[in-house]
């Protein structure tokens, strides 16, 4: 197929239009194009994933550096009263491949209960673990001679297009974690593989790194389909600005433009528009099209065509906080702050794709000697302003409930206990700065409000629910309730924050969605 960079290049007629070539959108588009009789167009607001900055995407050691660049929408939250009035950067991928190009690459499917909850909430057993576990990635060996026998379970990996693997370089922190699981398995259980039915326990990290480069939804799904199928076209640098009602209640048209002042174009799909613009983009686009909560829409002078109160509400996110200790041995942080060593590592990678740059080191890169905490939050509101090219108003309302704070306090206390086990003897020296003072609940709360931030896993702004439920935005088939021709396939439909890392669930969700569309529309 064709990769277009401007809407005036697109002249064909399409059966399906996918909005957003992100994590989910790339999967759906590639799967639909397997059927030669249908024509598929994907429209992506962001940039190419093969541009001059593409090292940021693909070199594993550069994980995290895409945030704040041209690959990022660069959203910011409104001031968060629960975080002492701070605003928080809220990154989302603005590139073919979406957030799978800039994320932290950690891959864990989550436990079976995660999927069974989706089945219960939607009233469709097709969303249960039993049915969904068939969609899988494939495990790749590391570039070096690290043997990973006993460190993962080959039986819970498969043959899907996405590549994952264990990190090739093992750090002292990891060795000590597993010593801890050896010493006190009843308290700190070893989990052979976080992709099994059990998502809990201490496991080796699986990352979306193939043998030596990041695997994205673009690389794993969209590019191979684009290269091999003439019935799939992709248009980048082009934002969908409005969904168009082509017949009563039937939203099979999209209006697009490259900037607020550029010419606007209309593309129509003979079968469906599939909205995969993500947790922020999807509700924003629905609301711009008059599909959303009437009261919110009237505040921004958009006439409400379909009053769907849950659009843009219920935003959930996970939270992160660094707890640091001074340590006795050199860490990766020292390596990363040594420019000569870093340059040499990147040169080695450029030469033959080996060396420390060829492996994901996300945990130690971000926070050398600490642990990360996930806290589920109860969050309202993604609102927006009418110009589609303005950023939406994002208010995750972090840490506004006692549940959030109580969870943090409990988590930090657990961590303090855990780090005082013998496995850390001789390695941890003193807690770093403020961490030394976390002796009471009140002091912990003060620390949390000062330093907590987003883990960048927002979901649930266009939630799935049973067909008979009044609430929610989509039914179990992911069609927008009460409308025709409009389906949502991305993180926004998840009923609540994922108990783990979301990308695996989003790839799986998109695989089943594509299968559903094929069986109902082809
Ligand atoms: C910095 C960061 C770190 C993360 N770390 C991890 C991790 O380690 N492990 C993990 O599991 N998850 C992680 N995540 C979360 C995970 O990457 C996301 O949950 C997931 O990729 C979201 O998939 P999606 O398909 O819903 O949206 P996205 O992948 O964001 O795709 C949405 C796409 O739609 C496009 N779009 C939006 N609006 C429009 C429009 N109007 N017109 C056309 N195109 C549009 C966007 O440009 C984007 O390409 C991280 C996320 C970020 C940002």
UniProtKB/TrEMBL annotation:
Keywords noted in UniProt: FAD, Flavoprotein, Signal
Positions that bind FAD: 95, 240, 502-503
GO molecular function: flavin adenine dinucleotide binding; oxidoreductase activity, acting on CH-OH group of donors
Every Glucose-methanol-choline oxidoreductase N-terminal domain range: 278-292
Cofactor(s) the record lists: FAD
Cross-referenced Pfam families: GMC_oxred_C (PF05199), GMC_oxred_N (PF00732)
SUPFAM superfamilies according to UniProt: FAD-linked reductases, C-terminal domain, FAD/NAD(P)-binding domain
Family label: Belongs to the GMC oxidoreductase family.
Full protein name: Aryl-alcohol oxidase-like protein
Organism: Mycena sanguinolenta
């Amino acid at each position: 197929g064709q990769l277009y960079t401007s809407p005036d290049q697109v002249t064909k007629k399409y059966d399906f239009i996918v909005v957003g070539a992100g994590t989910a959108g790339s999967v759906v588009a590639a799967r639909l194009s397997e059927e030669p009789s249908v024509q598929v167009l994907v429209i992506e607001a962001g940039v190419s994933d093969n541009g001059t900055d593409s090292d940021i995407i693909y070199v594993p050691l550069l994980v995290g550096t895409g945030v704040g660049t041209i690959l990022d929408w660069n959203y910011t939250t409104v001031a968060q009263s629960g975080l002492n009035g701070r605003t928080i950067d809220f990154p989302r991928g603005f590139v073919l491949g979406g957030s799978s190009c800039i994320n932290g690459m950690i891959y864990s499917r989550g436990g079976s209960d995660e999927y069974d909850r989706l089945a219960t909430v939607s009233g469709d057993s097709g969303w249960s673990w039993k049915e969904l576990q068939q969609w899988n990635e494939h495990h790749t060996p590391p570039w070096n001679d690290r043997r990973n026998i006993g460190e993962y379970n080959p039986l819970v990996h498969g043959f899907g297009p996405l590549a994952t693997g264990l990190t090739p370089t093992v750090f002292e922190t990891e060795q000590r974690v597993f010593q801890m699981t050896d010493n006190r398995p009843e308290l700190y259980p070893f989990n052979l593989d976080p992709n099994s039915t059990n998502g809990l326990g201490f496991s080796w990290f699986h990352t979306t790194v193939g043998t030596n480069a990041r695997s994205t939804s673009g690389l794993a799904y969209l590019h191979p389909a684009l290269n091999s199928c003439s019935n799939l076209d992709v248009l980048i640098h082009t934002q969908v600005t409005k969904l168009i009602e082509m017949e009563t209640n039937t939203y099979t048209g999209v209006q697009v433009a490259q900037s607020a002042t550029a010419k606007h174009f209309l593309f129509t799909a003979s079968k469906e528009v599939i909205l995969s613009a993500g947790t922020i983009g999807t509700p924003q686009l629905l609301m711009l099209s008059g599909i959303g909560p009437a009261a919110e829409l009237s505040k921004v002078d958009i006439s409400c065509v379909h009053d769907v109160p849950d659009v843009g509400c219920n935003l959930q996110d996970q939270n992160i906080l660094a707890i640091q200790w001074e340590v006795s041995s050199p860490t990766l942080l020292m390596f990363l702050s040594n420019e000569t060593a870093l340059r040499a590592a990147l040169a080695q990678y450029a030469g033959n794709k080996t060396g420390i740059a060829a492996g994901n080191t996300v945990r130690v890169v971000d926070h050398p000697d600490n642990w990360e905490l996930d806290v589920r939050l109860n969050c309202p509101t993604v609102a927006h302003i009418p110009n589609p090219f303005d950023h939406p108003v994002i208010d995750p309302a972090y840490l506004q409930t006692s549940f959030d704070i109580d969870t943090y306090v409990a988590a930090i206390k657990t961590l303090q206990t855990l780090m005082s086990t013998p496995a850390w003897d001789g390695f941890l020296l003193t807690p770093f700065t403020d961490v030394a003072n976390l002796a009471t609940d009140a002091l912990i709360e003060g620390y949390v409000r000062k330093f907590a931030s987003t883990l960048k896993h927002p979901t649930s702004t266009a939630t799935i629910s049973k067909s008979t439920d009044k609430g929610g935005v989509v039914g179990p088939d992911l069609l927008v309730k009460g409308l025709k021709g409009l389906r949502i396939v991305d993180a926004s439909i998840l009923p609540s924050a994922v108990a783990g890392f979301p990308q695996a669930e989003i790839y799986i969700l998109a695989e089943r969605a594509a299968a559903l569309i094929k069986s109902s529309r082809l």
